[in-house]
Amino acid sequence: MPPSARELLTRLAPDFPARHVGEIHTDTTEFMSISAGDVIQLGARHFLVLRDEAERRFGLEDPKFWVKRCRNLETGNRNILKLVFHESFPMTIGSMVVTCTRSPRKESRILDLVRGDHRFMQGETVLDTAGNPVRILEVVAGKRLDEKIEALEMSHRDYFHTLFPDVLARFIEACEAIAWLHDHNEKHGDVRRDHLYVSYDTGRYVWIDFDYTFDFQESPFGLDLFGLGNIIQFLVGMGQHTTQSITPAQRKLIEAEDCSIMFANRIVNLKKLFPYIPDALNNVLLRFSLGANVFYDATRDLIRDLTKAHKALGA
């Protein structure tokens, strides 16, 4: 007879409070019923659930009940387990509509593809007893890039002339990683600034979360490119600048075409706010604006222009 969760934790995690001990789950289909104190068993491995993960965006916390922060009871290591959750929704970019779909099997495929490439989060997929592909992810030892930028206590001018050249160089490397995926006919699928971490050990930028895919008829990899555009706008601006956040004097300078094609209140023509931004860099930003006539079709075209912009900084 298999051990109960209490027997298992008494042996492998005697420090865990007995009053919080739950059940052992070998079938993760009903992920809402799996909570802190439960144990997920995958083959011979046992993972103690510590909490549900959550995304923190726009000052709000959005719980992800299908993503569990866990402790591997055999090794003591911390892991993130992503359970199967399907969803689909439309996204509007200007006059274009993109269908986004969450695909656990696509993320499993990406994890296999990028194994050993530390520009990407690492992990493996194991099937539970119901055949659900559970992704066992290594926790990235780092901090979100956007949080590092937002924590800076300096003027934009000082940031732009001292820190930004290195930030841009490392972001170009991160774009190379996305281009490498595209070369292998794969998409990241959810390119956002909170999905890019800075490694504590190496300073390398590391991509996480690959479980979205999208159907974008006009451009097969277009949503990844627009995501990269959103990130470079944030990095150039040392944060997000909106029509609501700027001064009345600055607001008089901004026209509708100076704003993002994805978010109509976000300013991408940052040269109007910071005149010392070189044209070579600002022109990249404008390719993601409502006033753009031409958009990027390939990540390597974006990389080419960002490389030229980096040289224009004189770094």
Automatic annotation (TrEMBL):
Domain of life from the UniProt record: Bacteria
Protein name as catalogued: Serine/threonine protein kinase
Protein's organism: Solidesulfovibrio fructosivorans JJ]
Lineage, top ranks: Bacteria, Pseudomonadati, Thermodesulfobacteriota, Desulfovibrionia, Desulfovibrionales
